[in-house]
Write a structure and sequence with these properties.
12 helices, alpha+beta, 31% strand, eight-stranded antiparallel sheet
């Protein structure tokens, strides 16, 4: 497989199997400094790390720059998006007197996702196929368990443990919150229950209602009907920038397409926005148009001076969109008041005989009849109008009737695309196994977690970017691991998680056997994510296990941990000794110790937010027959009785090697062991041609190309079962006869008089994986003839199969061209005798 790697520029003397040190000199362009091998290696590592962070890995192994990836996805999908779509959604609910809109919005989004996965049609369902409990979610978010395992206080309390403090006297029901607060509750393996498990009560006596809901929630605190797959924060359509202490908004229409895609794919999303009944905001609480004559309710923000433009105070559910919904539904009479020119403009509209705008609308909300002008006209009135047509369909939580007035359109309001304050929009997805919803069987019955909150990105006092959670597995059950859950706090965060089993030292999370390694995982969006573990990973009973987390955003740490202001924290922590560990650059230290150090800097620190999900398994009874052989692959041991077969996992792209590289196994190969075998994956292999070419300094009229293969373990290349080589051909033959396809098959077909095949017999500069090949005794009439090269690695497995990997193509070079470049650089590092010898090629 050809892979793109970060390019680097360097001048160094090459070693090869056909020439001694200083025999060749490499050409590069615009180079003035000589780098040492160590500096070059560090530069490559830094470049590769940055490249992987900023580029999403595609299915074919190639990578696409993160912003371009998101834009290309938006563009690709936008071409197929309908003008109108409404996700399936459940009936309109009423939060009544409590400030629980944040949980109602999230519940509406999750219900919609479940309906979408179950195949329900778009729009309002006549009856609710699924009805989830808002009461349970609010309580578990604001009332956490203590270190002793009981809910803080005397079963119920107005404060909490391990998460946000509740300042009201209603156990959090009137505390308020945001979309993320609801997502944290739902991703904590709690709160996902039915309305029938804990019905929402409001409208009566607030003390009695809240106490009743809290008592039920406390009694069923760990009840959870299903698991959450992901909760992603979508990029804002009108993001806020702060420069020099001043907030401003700008417009990113591409993000609106992302919202639409998520609604079509996953169902409704929850979102914050600013709501007010004041006329300055040109919006109402949502009474129907009978109050306002022909204008109807007006949901968009136009005032350019009010501070509320940069804040939010309500959370709703976005269930759909309508591109055709006319902007003239949102007109506001212009009387010289300030308005935001980012989203609004002045339009003069012709009035009817009653001095009302003379306009009408089609059934789809588009404008049917209107006369407008850009300049004042007699019989026209100036109005502030959104700059664009289109509206979001919003499901609110105020019921359908308020007193004697109808609320919106039976609880659905149409919010203009030009509404600026919609923010922190969350798309939540449940696990695909919908049988869990009916409580038949959850996808995962066990959660290993020390934290339920979203957390903050790691503070500056941490010197390294590793955290670990350590768990003790019970005596009677094994756990079959199925999923890792984690949060990211910045777009493009690169995460890596390693699971260790059978720790020999609970204070050292890496002291056990490596059971699983996710490799680097890049997430395009902020939020909660899960990583599915496809292979069998068992956490053995009566052992200590750990998960080690590394997360980075460029050069900065991206670890999501519990962290807050030590002087007035919103979070209270539940750290126990040796539960959470942090790496200080030299050793693992306990979270309690780090918290004590951090408080000196005004920060309090708790657990990390990574967690693991799995299913309990009965412990297999010990067999009377002890297996004869043990096959260990990537640290995972499998016992095999004599005469039985063993099949290598199919997950390693390039197969496996034993410890001394004498035997290579193909991915998915089946063997019958006759001894203990230890093998590791041949993974993360990068293979490329070194930039430029080199020319023979001994007068043998030669040109040489070099290739480099790098990876975590390239020792297998020393195996007699591996052949490394290079194919070299004139560029004209490569274009015409080879049709730009240079590989072993085309080389054999073309013949040795057209394509030279050089098999490697030793490592260049004694660096395993670096090899060179050249052509000498080139005739003068070919000194200016361009050459091209491509290297290959053929892996021959023990079952007789083989696989060939190819590098990228080398740059096109001739002897003359190499010397010309060296001449233009002033022949760096060459003697007068060498320069005089090279000038003959010019």
């Amino acid at each position: 497989m050809k892979r793109k790697v970060i390019s680097f520029i360097v001048i160094l003397a090459l070693l090869s199997t056909i020439a001694c040190s200083k025999a060749f000199v490499v050409d590069t362009k615009a180079v003035s400094d000589v780098m040492t091998m160590s500096e070059m290696t560090d530069a490559i590592k830094d470049g590769v790390k940055e490249f992987k962070r900023t580029h999403i890995k595609n299915k074919d192994g190639s990578r696409t720059e993160l912003d371009e990836y998101k834009k290309s996805r938006a563009t690709k999908k936008r071409n197929n998006l309908p003008n109108y779509y409404v996700a399936p959604y459940t009936s309109i609910k009423d939060q009544d007197s409590f400030g629980s809109c944040w949980m109602f919005a999230e519940v509406g989004s999750v219900e919609s996702n479940i309906l979408k996965k179950a195949g329900y049609p778009s729009g309002l369902q006549e009856t609710d196929p699924i009805d989830l409990s808002e009461a349970q979610g609010v309580f578990v978010q604001y009332n956490k368990q203590t270190k002793t395992g009981v809910i803080s206080g005397e079963v119920l309390t107005e404060s909490c443990n391990d998460s946000e403090k509740s300042s009201d006297s209603y156990y959090g029901y009137n505390e308020g919150g945001w979309a993320w607060d609801a997502s944290m509750a739902y991703t904590a393996d709690k709160a996902c229950v039915f309305e029938s498990d804990n019905p929402y009560r409001a409208g009566g006596d607030s003390d009695t209602d809240s106490r009743t809901m809290a008592e039920i929630a406390a009694a069923s605190y760990r009840l959870n009907r299903f698991n959450i797959k992901s909760a992603e924060q979508l990029p804002e359509v009108f993001p806020v920038e702060k420069k020099d202490g001043v907030y401003t908004r700008y417009y990113n229409p591409e993000n609106r397409e992302i919202w639409k895609q998520k609604i079509i794919a996953n169902g409704a999303i929850s979102s914050n926005y600013y709501q007010s009944s004041s006329s300055i905001y040109n919006r109402t609480w949502g009474y129907d148009k009978s109050q306002y004559g022909s204008m109807g309710p007006n949901f968009w923000y136009h005032d350019a001076t009010a501070k509320a433009k940069y804040s939010t105070n309500h959370v709703i559910t976005v269930v759909g969109f309508n591109d055709n919904y006319s902007k003239y539904h949102y007109i506001t009479k212009y009387t010289s008041q300030s308005y935001d020119e980012l989203v609004g403009e002045i339009v003069y509209i012709k009035l009817d005989d009653n001095s009302e705008p003379d306009m009408s609308f089609d059934e789809d909300g588009s404008i049917k009849n209107i006369q407008t002008s850009d300049t004042p006209q007699e019989g026209y009135q100036a109005y502030i109008v959104p700059k664009e047509d289109g509206a979001w369909l919003i499901k609110n939580s105020y019921g359908t009737v308020n007193g004697r007035y109808k609320m919106y359109d039976d609880g659905i309001m149409y919010m203009s695309y030009c509404e600026e304050t919609l923010s922190e929009s969350i798309s939540t997805v449940v696990e695909d196994d919908l049988s869990q919803i009916n409580n038949e069987e959850k996808t995962f019955d066990t959660t290993l977690s020390h934290s339920s909150m979203m957390g903050q990105r790691i503070p500056s006092f941490a010197t390294e970017v590793k955290a670990a959670e350590v768990y003790s597995i019970g005596n009677d059950k094994d756990i079959e691991l199925g999923q890792i859950g984690y949060w990211t706090g910045k777009e493009g965060t690169v995460s890596r998680f390693k699971v260790y089993g059978s720790l020999t030292d609970r204070s050292d999370p890496e002291s056990g056997t490596l059971l699983f390694d996710t490799g680097e995982v890049t997430d395009a969006y902020i939020g909660y994510h899960t990583f599915d573990i496809a292979q069998a990973v068992t956490l053995t009973h009566s052992t200590n296990v750990s998960i080690v987390a590394e997360q980075a955003c460029g050069e900065k740490s991206g670890l999501m941990i519990e962290a807050d202001d030590a002087y007035d924290p919103d979070y209270l922590y539940n750290c126990k000794t040796n539960d959470t560990k942090y790496f200080d650059g030299e050793k693992w230290i306990d979270a309690e110790t780090l918290d004590q150090q951090a408080r000196e800097d005004g920060i309090t620190v708790g657990n990390s937010t990574v967690k693991m999900f799995g299913n309990e398994k009965d412990v297999e009874p010990e067999s009377t027959t002890v297996p004869k052989y043990t096959v260990t692959v990537d640290g995972v041991e499998t016992s095999v009785e004599e005469g039985d077969s063993f099949t290598f996992p199919s997950t390693s792209e390039n197969g496996y090697t034993n410890e001394d590289y004498t035997t290579l196994y193909a991915s998915g190969q089946t063997i019958t062991p006759d001894r203990d075998i230890t093998a590791t994956s041949i993974s993360d292999l990068d293979f490329t041609m070194v930039k430029g070419a080199s020319v023979d300094l001994r007068g043998r009229d030669g040109i040489k190309f070099c290739a480099v293969a790098t990876g975590s373990d390239v020792g297998f290349l020393n195996s007699s079962s591996v052949e490394c080589g290079t194919l070299i051909a004139p560029h004209d033959i490569f274009i015409d006869e080879l049709e730009e396809n240079l590989d072993l098959e085309s080389a054999e077909k073309a013949g040795t008089n057209k394509v030279i095949k050089v098999v490697n017999s030793g490592w260049d500069q004694a660096i395993v994986g670096r090899f060179a090949a050249g052509v000498i005794n080139i005739k003068p009439f070919n000194w200016s003839r361009e050459m091209v090269a491509e290297s290959y690695i053929t892996i021959n497995y023990s079952d007789g199969s083989s696989k060939t990997l190819y590098s990228d193509l080398s740059p096109t070079r001739s002897i003359k061209r190499v010397v010309e470049i060296l001449r233009d650089m002033g022949y760096p590092g060459l003697t007068e005798e060498q320069i005089e010898m090279l000038q003959k090629y010019l």
